[in-house]
């Protein structure tokens, strides 16, 4: 449960390529010793490192990596990989940040979610992988995740998975009350009203204020609240896209049409199984969670494209997903990169897809085997077709803050008020904006 | 915590008495303690004070700011709202809890209770439950959907107020804390009652005093010292409130803010916002306030007792 929880609570991302250009542009002068030594690391060097062997420590909570590590060690018997779960999401980031600060106890590889990566890149806590040839991987990954690991001219991680959004719905509930599966957000709100009138215990979805969900919704609506250019940061939640979202979602919140159940709570899992929560708009990593967490929902759930703002539209956004990175100061970077490549580009991807992960690689996403796989849990629906289609429709130009971890942590202090009092979502977002701007100023960003 | 340095001081003075060759024997005895004390108590405090004099930014690195963080903390509305919340908690919850503990202790001590030792262990048992487990357990009972409240609502066809709503959350936390600590405080008070010489009760009875009179004239005065200790512990406990809000926040993310209590605020600042320096400042300011209040209570209590 904790494993998957972070994926959704904290979300994934596409960062504009221009992000942090000034902050990290001059990477040539940092850590000159290591940089010089690794600058020319070629495929031969990586192979040499693998042949020489050694041991690396990997901090990650992604469950399918366990098998990858086992296979990797079988293939390269001289390499020993210590896979450590140092906590999920924020817990691990805290440990990692402490290790970076102390300069000891660092892992060689660390899992970092897309939304949190800019913060580590900015603090020069993770290694620029262009020196190892990561810049030659253009086209290997889908654009959203690939953009997410870029910061300025650097590439700070290799994408591990992705979370293009889709509408997961409980078909039984929709059939029972004879409600059409909504294709637009207008229809979605209408369905919410109809459903709740027909059965006062049933809700279209649950929402108690989730930063990851809210930003992904604004993303799909075309909002671009965060403007990031190096250390110049702008936050503005008054744009048209944001207002499109708040106007619609406010109706659901004010009308008490969303269940006041926190995601990933026991009540949430129960609600997904017994029809209390009829839909979820969530990332593509959800199927495995439903299968393992909501056994009672087997055969009931289906996947449809994310509802649209205009009928016939084709827009989606990302929600969740993470990358593997190499902390600056890691002892054996070449070997670490060899592992990254194995796990996220080569054989490891296949292993992880078999284990239920949603890949970020174009090769897997495009393969018929992946797309045509039938999911018994979803009534033999070919779920990946919908999800892969969504991956190609992610709206471009979105960026997260270079301190999104903090921003998300104060979301419920501000926007959360809209869920328990008369405050509107728009006012809540304004308060969130003020809090994030204040923090940005304190941290030395030039806020516009 | 308050008593330790005071206990160490007189013995140190005695060893160093003038006119005699300085003997290190005493120091050798307290040495191991002092070493551990310095390492795990003094060093972290010194390090926090050191941290609190700097400001580290994501852009611009670390700069010395002197008292800058303290000025900021004293004018920080979020800090004061957190302080106000625990102060309110203190003046409402602590008297209720101590009163209940007192009643239970007197009841057990009265000797008229059937199965007194079972009663005593039963009241004390919640204290043995780890605070995190207790908060999880109560959090589940508080649930209006699938928890005990939800079941009651379904069973009786009523709609009880949601204990996890922003209006009631502090009272709900107070309820958990009371449940946890009544037994602990009862034990402090009960052991104080046990040391009262029973011949006093006999003498009082012979003089025609009823049970209430005995409680009022003998037992309560005898409890003054123990009550004072219990009060000071409770003050410190209230100001350090952390576990319960931290656990319940998953269930009530909007009712419990990141600055719900001073400790939780310090936690959020360092682990969510990477503001270790300011977090250390908040912790120190709160520690000083706690010490001052606990000390004032102790002084007042002792003066009355003397």
From TrEMBL, chain A:
Alphabetical keyword list: Signal, Sugar transport, Transport
Pfam family for this entry, one: SBP_bac_1
Classification lineage: Bacteria, Bacillati, Actinomycetota, Actinomycetes, Streptosporangiales
Organism: Nonomuraea roseoviolacea subsp. carminata
Keyword Transport included in the entry's annotation: yes
Xref: PROSITE patterns: PROKAR_LIPOPROTEIN (PS51257), SBP_BACTERIAL_1 (PS01037), TAT (PS51318)
Name by which UniProt lists this protein: Multiple sugar transport system substrate-binding protein
Family listed: Belongs to the bacterial solute-binding protein 1 family.
Family matches, as CDD domains: PBP2_TMBP_like (cd13585)
Top-rank taxon, per record: Bacteria
Leader sequence segment: 1-23
From TrEMBL, chain B:
Annotated ABC transmembrane type-1 domain residues: 83-297
Organism, scientific name: Nonomuraea roseoviolacea subsp. carminata
The entry's keywords: Cell membrane, Membrane, Sugar transport, Transmembrane, Transmembrane helix, Transport
Protein name, per record: Multiple sugar transport system permease protein
Membrane topology reported for the UniProt record: Multi-pass membrane protein
Family statement drawn from the similarity comment of this UniProt entry: Belongs to the binding-protein-dependent transport system permease family.
Cellular localisation: Cell membrane
Residue stretches spanning the membrane: 29-50, 86-106, 118-141, 168-190, 222-242, 278-297
């Amino acid at each position: 449960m904790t494993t998957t929880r972070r994926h959704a609570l904290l979300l994934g991302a596409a960062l504009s390529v221009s992000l942090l250009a000034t902050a990290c542009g001059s990477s040539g002068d940092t850590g000159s010793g290591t940089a010089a030594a690794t600058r020319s690391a070629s495929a031969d060097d990586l192979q040499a490192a693998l042949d020489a062997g050694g041991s690396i420590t990997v901090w990650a909570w992604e469950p399918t990596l366990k098998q990858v590590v086992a296979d990797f060690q079988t293939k390269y018997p001289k390499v020993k990989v210590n896979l450590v779960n140092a906590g999920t999401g924020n817990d691990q980031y805290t440990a990692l940040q402490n290790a970076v600060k102390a300069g000891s106890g660092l892992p060689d590889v660390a899992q970092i979610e897309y939304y949190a990566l800019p913060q580590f890149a900015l603090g020069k806590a993770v290694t620029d992988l262009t020196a190892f040839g990561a810049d030659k991987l253009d086209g290997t990954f889908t654009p959203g995740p690939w953009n997410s690991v870029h910061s300025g001219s650097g590439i700070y991680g290799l994408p591990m998975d992705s979370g293009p959004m889709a509408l997961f719905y409980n078909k039984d509930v929709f059939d029972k009350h004879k409600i059409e599966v909504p294709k637009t957000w207008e229809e979605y709100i209408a369905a919410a009203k109809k459903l709740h009138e027909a059965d006062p215990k049933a809700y279209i979805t649950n929402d108690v204020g989730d930063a990851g969900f809210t930003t992904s919704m604004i993303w799909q609506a075309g909002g671009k609240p965060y403007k990031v250019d190096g250390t110049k940061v702008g936050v503005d939640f008054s744009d048209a896209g944001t207002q499109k979202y708040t106007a619609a979602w406010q109706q659901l919140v004010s009308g008490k049409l969303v269940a006041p159940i926190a995601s990933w709570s026991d009540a949430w899992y129960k609600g997904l199984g017994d029809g209390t929560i009829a839909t979820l708009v969530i990332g593509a990593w959800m199927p495995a969670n439903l299968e393992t967490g909501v056994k009672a929902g087997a055969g009931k759930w289906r996947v449809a494209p994310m509802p649209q703002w205009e009928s016939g539209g084709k827009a989606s956004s990302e929600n969740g997903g993470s990358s593997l990175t190499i902390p600056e100061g890691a002892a054996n970077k070449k070997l670490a990169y060899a592992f990254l490549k194995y796990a996220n580009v080569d054989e490891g991807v296949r292993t992880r897809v078999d284990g239920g992960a949603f890949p970020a690689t174009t090769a897997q996403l495009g393969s018929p085997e992946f797309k045509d796989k039938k999911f018994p849990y979803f009534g033999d629906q070919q779920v990946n077709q919908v999800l892969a289609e969504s991956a190609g429709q992610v709206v471009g130009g979105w960026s997260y803050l270079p301190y999104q971890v903090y921003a998300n942590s104060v979301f419920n202090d501000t926007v959360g008020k809209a869920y328990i009092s008369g405050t509107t979502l728009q006012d809540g977002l304004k308060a969130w904006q003020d809090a994030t701007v204040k923090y940005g100023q304190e941290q030395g960003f030039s806020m516009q | 915590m308050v008593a330790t340095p005071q206990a160490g001081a007189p013995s140190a003075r005695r060893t160093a008495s003038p006119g005699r060759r300085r003997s290190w024997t005493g120091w050798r005895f307290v040495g191991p303690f002092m070493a551990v004390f310095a390492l795990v108590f003094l060093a972290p405090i010194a390090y926090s004070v050191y941290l609190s004099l700097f400001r580290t930014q994501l852009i611009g690195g670390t700069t010395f700011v002197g008292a800058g963080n303290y000025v900021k903390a004293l004018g920080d509305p979020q800090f004061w709202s957190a302080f106000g919340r625990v102060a309110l908690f203190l003046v409402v919850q602590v008297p209720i809890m101590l009163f209940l503990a007192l009643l239970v202790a007197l009841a057990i001590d009265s000797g008229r209770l059937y199965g007194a030792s079972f009663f005593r262990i039963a009241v004390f048992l919640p204290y043995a439950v780890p605070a995190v487990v207790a908060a999880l357990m109560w959090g589940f009972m508080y649930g209006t959907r699938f928890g005990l409240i939800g079941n009651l609502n379904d069973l009786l066809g009523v709609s009880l107020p949601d204990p996890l709503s922003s209006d009631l959350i502090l009272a709900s936390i107070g309820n958990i804390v009371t449940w946890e600590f009544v037994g602990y405080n009862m034990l402090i008070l009960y052991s104080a009652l046990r040391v009262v010489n029973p011949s006093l009760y006999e003498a009082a009875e012979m003089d025609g005093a009823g049970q209430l009179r005995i409680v009022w004239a003998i037992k309560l005065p005898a409890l003054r010292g123990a009550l004072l200790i219990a009060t000071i512990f409770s003050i410190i406990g209230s100001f350090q409130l952390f576990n319960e809000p931290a656990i319940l926040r998953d269930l009530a993310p909007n009712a419990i803010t990141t600055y719900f209590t001073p400790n939780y605020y310090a936690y959020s600042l360092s682990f969510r916002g990477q503001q270790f320096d300011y977090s250390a400042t908040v912790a120190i300011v709160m520690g000083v306030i706690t010490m001052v209040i606990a000390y004032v209570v102790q002084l007042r209590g002792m003066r009355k007792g003397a």
